[in-house]
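User: Hey, my collaborator sent me this sequence without any context and asked if I could get a structure. I don't really work with proteins. Can you help?
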Amino acid sequence: MKVLYIGSGISALQAREEKYQGHIIVCLNNAWRIFAGGSFDYWLHSGDFPQENYPVATHFKADIGYERYVQASDWIGKKLGWRHEDPEFYIGYTMFFQGLYWIMMALSPTTIGLLGFDHDYDQNKVVKWQQAGEPNIQNQFNQPEKVPNINSWSESFFKEFRPDFFYGHGTPDPLRTGLGLDYIKTKMQLADSVARQLGIAIVNYSERASPVEVFQRVRL
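Assistant: No problem. I've predicted the 3D structure and written it out in structure-token form, which is a compact way to encode the shape of the chain:
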């Protein structure tokens, strides 16, 4: 069984092509928009995902929230005999890795194909965001007045930049800010090793360039 795991990068748009039919589809956070008004299989999202961005008129089999996906790192850690006090942080404390390990644990596929996880972001957007104090949902976007929602805020804040998500703008992924590309590469290598031990192949279906190359590139 093959899984198509989709993020919010521009290469996610490839998921609309017929050649990906036959995959179990897992959408992370805003990636559900690829199938807006249609259907896919699993929606996986963070605990603080904005309510205004929840799927509308879109069908999926299961909503996978924090309480479900957080169990994956513990389960795999025990299965492989890890000696780490906090496997959730060890695997890479961000939604991409949390979702990847949930797929490995819960679905046990033969292949996990990635789209929308190229990390090909505009670094100038990151600089502006950091210089502004990293505004986000948790700090009310560093504004005393109420911000209508993350969508209107991000479109205004990043208006001089070209969107690097397939649906527009959003706050920078923590992987490209405080953690950095070396951290991404290290945790991808860990995930690739774990997958191989479980008999799973993680491959990258994206046709876009990426600053981090770990998973095998596969063209269908």
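In plain terms: The chain is about 30% helix and 10% strand. You can pass these tokens on to your collaborator as they are.
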